[in-house]
UniProtKB/TrEMBL annotation:
Pfam families: Cons_hypoth95. The keyword Methyltransferase applies. GO terms for molecular function: RNA methyltransferase activity. GO terms for biological process: methylation; RNA processing. Keywords: Methyltransferase, S-adenosyl-L-methionine, Transferase. This is Methyltransferase small domain-containing protein. It comes from Nicotiana attenuata. The keyword S-adenosyl-L-methionine applies. S-adenosyl-L-methionine binds at residues 288, 315, 338, 386. Belongs to the class I-like SAM-binding methyltransferase superfamily. RNA M5U methyltransferase family.
Length: 491
């Protein structure tokens, strides 16, 4: 669930913190049939009669054995929602909204383990508390085309049996295929908009148990990739496969991906339309599993960012949030800060496809937001944070809690401060007077402090801790809270 929280300070300075917290991110469509659903919970009447039980039940044959879902009924109403409504009421927010998007077939990105044998491969998730893989061919959370691509992959095991492609054996460290990642793009501009979701194409990433494409089992990899493309590519009646990638991983730990990626077949670039812009996502970069819920969150978020604002997007990934704001709110500047260097390529491709009327100063920085966070807060009207489940880094919370002191320190300084040149930020349309890549300086006129904080969280418990810490400082006041059902079937 994703929750959006907005704060304003108790002091005369107008400062709103848009704090969006995710515990199970949510969106809005109408609950009617398993193909599309919409629901908005009224916080003033949270016990209102739900729709008929069958319309909001998971009805998945894998529920008892699979660890992916933990809630079989009332998918539109995760258990945490009642707690969230009460929590925000106590903090003065009585109009908390919770919107639930597609309840079935919502997952457009899945990482699945591959075990078993070549004659009977098991492709799915681990059984709770074990490393025993549960085969989930009829997963109700998956976009239907993910299930179709998994079935095609199983056919490939059987079809090329003479090559003896083997699922990974974790105990022995042997076998060929360790994991797969399936990612669905629903952005096909050749189709009418209502037809695009159900006709999404699947990018298949094969996590191969070898060091590179030159290893001894490379022939098996190529044969499997060509089978997928021949039977699911553009020459087939149903074009299912968008592309095939390989990732090479030989480590014995639990890390799914290695550092080496290779594009094998199909389109190299993977695009999705989210938050009003075309977004490029490499298989190595993080992407939201529920693209429709994420789109709804972005469109809600955009309403809280003033036109022409200066924005810093912390924990930015490929910069989707920041770039959507640059487009929709005509931002003066957008800085995206991300510790994972693999996200840079996706950011660059997305920027290249932004409309020509976007005139923001846009930059992506390979940096840890917890190190010297002041340098990111300075010069920003709006701060967007989308941290991992553990919540905000303590150093960032500390700076936000003492934002007035930071303002006093800033006002007392009359000289421009040098911003650390951490991996040379990639800069688009940089104004010469404001930003120089080789020797970046921030002038006095750019040393304003945030007036808005938007917090997007996927960890309810960590968000509550961060929220109370910010409120206790008396610097911030909670203004708004919104929820988005990113993971129906979970609590």
């Amino acid at each position: 669930m994703a929750l959006s929280f907005f704060f304003s300070p108790a002091v005369p300075i107008h400062r709103i913190i848009s704090c969006q917290a995710t515990a199970n991110q949510l969106c809005a469509e109408r609950v009617a049939a398993p193909s599309s659903s919409a629901l908005s919970i009224n916080p003033n009447n949270p016990i209102s009669p739900p729709p008929p039980s069958l319309s909001c039940s998971l009805n998945c044959t894998h529920f008892q054995s699979c660890s992916g879902c933990t809630q079989d009924f009332d998918l539109h109403h995760p258990v945490v929602i009642d707690e969230a409504i009460g929590y925000f009421k106590k903090l003065g927010v009585k109009d908390f909204s919770f919107d639930s998007c597609r309840l079935w077939g919502w997952r457009c990105r899945a990482k699945l383990a591959v075990r078993g044998s070549s004659s009977k491969p098991l492709i799915g998730l681990y059984e709770e508390g074990t490393h025993n893989v549960v085969d989930i061919p009829d997963c109700k959370a998956h976009h239907p085309n993910i299930n179709a691509a998994v079935e095609l992959l199983k056919r490939g095991f059987r079809w090329i049996i003479e090559l003896n492609v083997e699922p990974y054996d974790e105990d022995q460290g042997t076998g060929d295929l360790r994991y797969i990642q399936m990612a669905v793009t629903t952005h096909d501009t050749s189709l009418p908009i209502p037809e695009r979701y159900k006709n999404g194409k699947v990018q298949v990433s094969l996590v191969w148990n070898s060091r590179s494409e030159n290893s001894a089992n490379a022939g098996k990899l190529n044969a499997l990739a060509h089978f997928l493309w021949a039977n699911g590519g553009p020459k087939r009646k149903v074009h299912l496969i968008h592309s095939v990638w390989a990732n090479f991983q030989t480590s014995s730990n639990n890390i799914i991906f290695g550092n080496r990626w290779r594009h094998l077949l199909g389109e190299r670039d993977f695009w999705e339309h989210i938050g009003g812009i075309d977004v490029s996502l490499a298989p190595s970069s993080f992407g939201q599993a529920n693209t429709r819920a994420f789109d709804s969150l972005l469109r809600k978020l955009q309403k809280y960012v003033p036109l022409g604002a200066s924005v810093v997007d912390l924990y930015a990934g490929a910069g989707v949030i920041g770039l959507s704001l640059a487009f929709s709110r005509k931002c003066r500047s957008v800085k995206c800060v991300e510790v994972n260097k693999e996200s840079k390529q996706s950011f660059e491709k997305t920027v290249e496809r932004l409309p020509t009327n976007v005139e923001s100063n846009i930059s992506w920085h390979h940096a840890d937001a917890s190190i010297e966070p002041t340098s990111w807060l300075l010069g920003s009207d709006v701060v967007v944070v989308d941290p991992p489940r553990k919540g905000l880094d303590p150093s960032l919370v500390k700076e936000l809690r003492h934002i007035s002191a930071l303002e006093l320190r800033t006002n007392s300084s009359k000289r421009p401060e040098k911003v650390r040149d951490e991996k040379r930020p990639w800069v688009l349309r940089a104004r010469e007077a404001a930003i120089q890549i080789e020797n970046t300086t921030v002038h006095e006129e750019d040393q304003s402090l945030p007036q808005t904080l938007i917090y997007i969280s996927c960890g309810w418990e960590s968000f509550k801790e961060d929220c109370l810490s910010l409120l206790a400082s008396k610097e911030w006041h909670l203004h708004k809270a919104h929820g988005f059902n990113f993971f129906p079937g979970t609590q």
